[in-house]
Specification:
Layout (H helix, E strand, L loop, with lengths): L2 H20 L6 E4 L4 E13 L3 E19 L3 E14 L1 H4 L34 H4 L1 H7 L7 H5 L10 E11 L5 E9 L29 H4 L3 E9 L8 E9 L20 H5 L11 E4 L10 E10 L2 E11 L4 E4 L10 E4 L2 E13 L4 E16 L5 E18 L8 E13 L11 E10 L7 E10 L4 E11 L4 E12 L21 H9 L6 E9 L1
Parallel strand pairs: 9-13
Antiparallel strand pairs: 1-3, 2-3, 2-22, 3-4, 4-5, 5-6, 6-7, 7-8, 8-10, 10-11, 11-14, 12-13, 14-15, 15-16, 16-17, 17-18, 18-19, 19-20, 20-21, 21-22
Length: about 525
């Protein structure tokens, strides 16, 4: 990591500390108690896509630090940070397929075949701010990154190279309980699911990094937040409990779906939004609504969690903006010029989770549920509709010893079933009223846990699409690790009737059918071999 970045980080850390003091936390820092502790890694990830060639040549350097401070009246005062610098060389090494010069014969070419009706919309414009200034203006700062933004994704106006930078402090209360305050750029994690989120929706997500498949800690978009946690400890009823508040004071940012021209543009939405009517007609996207920062537009939530015997639970409430775009069709039935505005409406979430450890089964059962009020879903023939949504996940985790597989170490088995229910469903929505996605993780350990094979399988029932990801980790020593993997997709409807609002009802027509086909089905031509080498320090 360069000295310039480290110097910038130290200045920002000092600024955060001063800001927290100004907020009357009562911290009076008198001395640095210890030197700064550093850890991190450098990594190269090289992916090769079937029929395309190189799809990722990502080089990452990440450093984490923690500095403890002494304070009058406060305990465990620390400044914590994570820095990340990324360069993806795929735009230099495979510019024919990805980047500002990438070309497609028709919209959706990368995931479905062409038929005689696909001439309504032109192919998406890759990196529109470098190829079509008028379209760039229409997108208005959303999914309009330049090629350099994709090449160096951590370096932008939002300072995303700062993955975390916050100050945290504990206050012992007279009741014997503890108050913890944290302020800064953070990832606040609610829920324990993988691949798909139910409660873990405070931070938006960068799907352009690798669709849904990267670890959430690597693709959450950090936000400036203030959190307060009252650690109440055990009482007459609960073995432990705490109550926390979170206030997201950052300017609203939606999830990043990937710009047209990138290797990973989830749902191919980036190319749909960067397209226009064939023959020089209007653009698909008329405008993206921007939300200026204000207290009125800030996001906030509360969580109460506790432990009762073998059960851990939480109750959650959150007011935030929908992080996936709501596309408002501006025409009516029969309008063949499909013009849309993009909105991100305010929604309210109520939910909770229960984890139960079964001693008889030596396993953990998990349930997460979220009810959101006010989401907006697209319609193919009548604009959009506001609807409440119910999402849940049922999970089962167990360690299993299988001597027949040649090791005395336990294998880890984790299964999840995600459910989604649209309460006010319409026939022309490009979503099923009910859908389920099932996942399976099976992971083993050999050679004193240095060799670890695993397989992940995910199946989307509505899209009839499956992703299979076998991989193997080899820990050479305490510093070096190699991972080799395949990511294979199968199924998903590969052809759709074509309609830009009005040609057919039922919600299974292009261009909106990409939402029905889901993140796995729309990636059905993105089979890859993946190799990563990491050095940790």
């Amino acid at each position: 990591m360069s000295k310039t970045i480290i110097t910038t980080m130290n200045k920002l850390a000092a600024g955060v500390a001063m800001g927290v003091t100004a907020m009357s936390m009562g911290l009076s820092t008198t001395a640095v108690a210890a030197d700064t502790e550093w850890a991190g890694f450098v990594e190269n990830a090289t992916y090769v896509r079937d029929g395309v060639g190189l799809s990722k040549f990502r080089n990452t350097a990440q450093a984490e630090f923690s500095k403890q401070l002494e304070s009058d009246g406060w305990d465990s005062v620390t400044i914590n940070g994570t820095l990340r610098a990324t360069y993806d060389g795929v735009y230099d090494l495979n510019s024919d397929e990805f980047g500002q010069d990438a070309q497609a014969d028709y919209l959706g070419e990368n995931w479905h075949g062409q038929d005689t009706s696909t001439a309504i919309l032109a192919p998406g414009t890759p990196f529109p701010c470098e190829n079509d200034p008028a379209l760039c203006k229409n997108l208005d700062g959303y999914m309009d990154q330049s090629e350099d933004d994709a090449r160096y994704p951590d370096f932008n106006d939002q300072l995303d190279f700062i993955r975390e930078l916050y100050i945290s402090a504990d206050k012992q209360l007279e009741s014997g309980t503890v108050l913890n305050l944290s302020f800064g750029k953070q990832q606040v994690v609610w829920g324990k699911t993988d691949l798909f989120r139910v409660l873990d929706v405070i931070n938006p997500v960068d799907y352009s990094r690798h669709n849904i498949y990267d670890e959430l800690e690597d693709i959450r978009i950090p936000q400036w937040m203030l959190t307060a946690e009252w650690r109440m400890g055990p009482d007459k009823v609960f073995d432990d409990s705490n109550f926390s508040l979170v206030w997201n004071i950052d300017k609203f940012r939606p999830s990043n779906l990937g710009t047209c021209g990138q290797p990973y543009a989830i749902l191919d939405a980036g190319c749909f939004f960067a397209s226009r009517i064939n023959g020089g007609g209007p653009y698909v996207i008329n405008d993206v609504v921007d939300y200026d920062w204000s207290l009125r537009n800030s996001q906030f939530g509360a969580k109460w969690e506790g432990v009762y015997g073998d059960t851990t639970f939480s109750l959650n409430a959150l007011h935030y903006r929908q992080q996936l775009p709501s596309i408002h069709f501006l025409g009516g039935p029969g309008n063949n010029f499909g013009l849309f505005d993009i909105h991100f409406p305010e929604v309210n979430l109520l939910g909770g989770s229960i984890d139960y450890y079964s001693m008889d089964q030596d396993a953990v059962w998990r349930l997460e549920m979220a009810y959101t009020e006010g989401e907006e879903l697209a319609r193919d023939t009548d604009g959009y509709k506001k609807t409440d949504m119910l999402r849940y996940v049922i999970g089962f985790d167990k360690n299993i010893i299988i001597p027949e597989l040649g090791t005395s170490s336990a294998f880890m088995l984790s299964t999840q079933l995600f459910g989604e229910h649209i309460l006010d469903h319409e026939r022309d929505m490009p979503n099923k009223k009910d859908n389920w996605i099932a996942t399976l993780l099976f992971k083993g350990f050999y050679m004193n846990n240095r060799l670890s094979p695993q397989i992940i399988i995910a199946h989307d029932f509505a899209a009839e699409a499956t992703a299979i990801a076998p991989s193997i980790d080899y820990l050479i020593n305490d510093n070096w690790k190699v991972n080799a993997a395949f990511n294979i997709k199968e199924g998903g409807n590969k052809t759709f009737p074509w309609s830009v609002a009005g040609a057919a009802a039922g919600g299974q027509t292009e261009p909106l059918a990409r939402f029905l086909n889901g993140p796995i089905g729309v990636a059905n031509q993105e089979d890859e071999f993946q190799l990563s080498v990491r050095y940790s320090f």
